[in-house]
Amino acid sequence: MIKFLFFILLFSFSNLYSLELKCYFEEVYADSSVQNGFFLIKDQKLRYEYRSKELFTIIHNYDQFFLVKNNDQKIVNKINQNTEIIEELLSLSQQYPNIEEEYISDDLIIKIEKALVGDFIKRILINSPNVKVSIYFNDCQKIQIPNRYFNHNPFLEYKFN
């Protein structure tokens, strides 16, 4: 569970001066497993949704995190444990766009690779004793996103245009 919590805050790095952003992501783990999905960012709100119905969607709104099961969206859990790494990443995200290529904190290493064109992030690498994963960002678009897609109750399916 904790490995998925790492990723929530990583996408706060893409908070491009209150722009609204939609990106597809691909998480590649050290064991070669892959997870795909999309995320939405608007101001300090985040929706990080895995494609698999067996996984979940993470909502960050009102300075809180919520986990919604993709196969039963009535099951919502507030995330309030094991947030130390998340808090570290939030701290780093406040520095955007003046971010470094590498951050080291205790046993956590975060490497950031920017895209060659534009100021979006291309990849984030997380290396800790619990997880090693690369997260790739694809097809990022600046779009208008209604606030209703950042609610956990009621939880609404995101409608792609």
Task: Compose a concise summary of this entry.
This protein is mostly beta strands and 161 residues long.
Structure description:
Helices cover 12% and strands 46% of the residues. The radius of gyration is 15 Å and the shape is globular. The termini are far apart. It has a ten-stranded antiparallel sheet with strand order 6-5-4-3-2-1-10-9-8-7, covered by helices on one side. It has a single domain (2-150), classed as outer membrane lipoprotein receptor (LolB), chain A (Clam), CATH 2.50.20.10. A hairpin with a 2-residue loop joins strand 7 and strand 8. With 161 residues, it is mainly beta.
Keywords:
globular; 161 residues; mainly beta; disordered N terminus; 2 helices; 12% helix; outer membrane lipoprotein receptor (LolB), chain A; ten-stranded antiparallel β-sheet
- CATH class identity: Mainly Beta
- Specify the overall morphology: globular
Q: Any idea how many domains?
A: 1
Helix content: 10-25%
Largest sheet properties? 10 strands, antiparallel
Q: How large a portion of the residues is in β-strands, by DSSP E?
A: over 45%
Helix count from the secondary structure assignment: 2
Under CATH, the topology is which? outer membrane lipoprotein receptor (LolB), chain A
**CATH H-level name... which superfamily?**
Lipoprotein localisation LolA/LolB/LppX
Query: Which CATH-level-2 architecture?
Result: Clam
Which residues sit in consecutive blocks of at least 5 with pLDDT less than 50? 1-17
Strand order across the largest sheet? 6-5-4-3-2-1-10-9-8-7
